[in-house]
Design a protein that fits this description.
Elements lengths: L8 E6 L3 H11 L5 E7 L2 H11 L3 E5 L7 H11 L5 E6 L3 H10 L3 E5 L3 H21 L19 E6 L7 H16 L3 E6 L6 H4 L8 H6 L6 H7 L1 E2 L5 E3 L13 H14 L2 E6 L5 H9 L2 E6 L3 H16 L7 E8 L7 H8 L3 E6 L2 H10 L3 H4 L4 H13 L5 H5 L2 H9 L1
Parallel strand pairs: 1-2, 1-3, 3-4, 4-5, 6-10, 6-11, 7-9, 7-10, 11-12, 12-13
Antiparallel strand pairs: 8-9
Helix pairs in contact: 2-3, 3-4, 6-16, 10-11
The structure holds adenosine-5'-triphosphate (ATP) and magnesium ion.
Adenosine-5'-triphosphate (ATP) binds next to helix 6, strand 12 and helix 14.
Amino acid sequence: MTSVPEQNIRLLIVDDIQSTRDNLRKLLSFEDDIEVVGTAGDGRQGVEEAHRLQPDIVLTDVNMPLMDGIQLTEQLTQDLPSSPVIIMSVQGERDYLRRAMQAGAREFLIKPFSHDELVAAIRRVYALEQKKGTFLARTTETQPTSAVARSVAGEVFVTFSAKGGVGTSVLAANLAVSLARETNARVALVDLDLQFGDIGVMLNLDYSRSITDVIDAQDRLDAETLEDILGTGPAGVRVLLAPLSPELADLVTADHVRTLFTELRKLYDFVVVDASSHLGEVGLQVMEVASRILVVTALTIPSIKDARLTLKVLESLNVDPERVMLVVNRADGYSDFNKEAIEQNLRVPVSGQIPYDPRAVGESLTRGTLFVETQPEAEISRAVRELAFRLVPQEQPALAGADRKRRRGLFGR
Ligand SMILES: Nc1ncnc2c1ncn2[C@@H]1O[C@H](COP(=O)(O)OP(=O)(O)OP(=O)(O)O)[C@@H](O)[C@H]1O
Ligand SMILES: [Mg+2]
């Protein structure tokens, strides 16, 4: 569900078959927000026209004389990065998919595609391109926060993994409670795994209000309404649950999330978000407001591969690397990988290592408790607290405002 842009999306069509170009033009003429500003009959002409017209999007065929669609993509990705390319190809040319993506294509449409698929792809690529601008120039400079009254917006920390099951939910929940315990700050925990969120069961919250209620109250969302919708977990952490049923997930849009986080940041010093492993518009929206994105990985090859892809996406969105933290979960001594190997492989420092502790985690999941609460002395709890400390450096006024005993607790265990 991508919002319709106010300005027209200026499109260049490149295809060697005249009737295809005409059909595409006709198909898109029904869309108010898309304007075909030019066409070209081969790759070389396509590059020339792209330079002349500076379109928002280039839609190109693969097989063409003089210069094919892959070469065109390569060239435009280099010369005109603000004119992203969508490639069209027929079934059976699947090898092109890989090559097209390597060349820098943003989308790949398999012919025959529907009118809806085409329009959706154009809008999606355009929206992402627009979003890139707003990601720019965000600093990690942390604002002073106060546990008493908020004059500045609170900070958002997102846990994310493109691979499911690596422990982002376990980490988010324990991190939120750790932050609340150790800093005395006001902390909210938001379950943005909208289809299959686990935070409710993890905290054993028998509660019937969720993010769906936030949407219902969208037009009159204020502090009081929001506070009413949130449940309460350990250490006073306020919790916003995912919809109670998976099919309600689609109701939540990036716009809802934007409004929600504006309100949450007024109310809480820290908002910890458990993001879904699906990187859609909701996830991107919350990453946009996050001061830290914790990319969680396990020590397995598929998980490290996905972490690499995630880091690449964040880089392509111009997210300041300072905002990205790599966290290894389920770290044990038996894996082929260690911290150094991962750092070398991903070229990003590991900011936190949460040990593999099936007993502590399993027990807390069965009981609906959190190990940072029930086993504060365990190595795994210490590691989570250390991560909390990294997110909220000592100089933070939130810590200065906390009582000294608690503050020592952050480093002493
Ligand atoms: N540090 C750990 N040590 C041992 N087991 C762990 C650890 N962290 C998570 N687990 C186990 O991994 C499983 C997945 O954890 P969790 O639900 O937090 O992952 P997730 O990334 O949120 O998964 P999903 O994609 O389903 O949302 C859980 O069953 C949990 O018991
Ligand atoms: Mg989860």
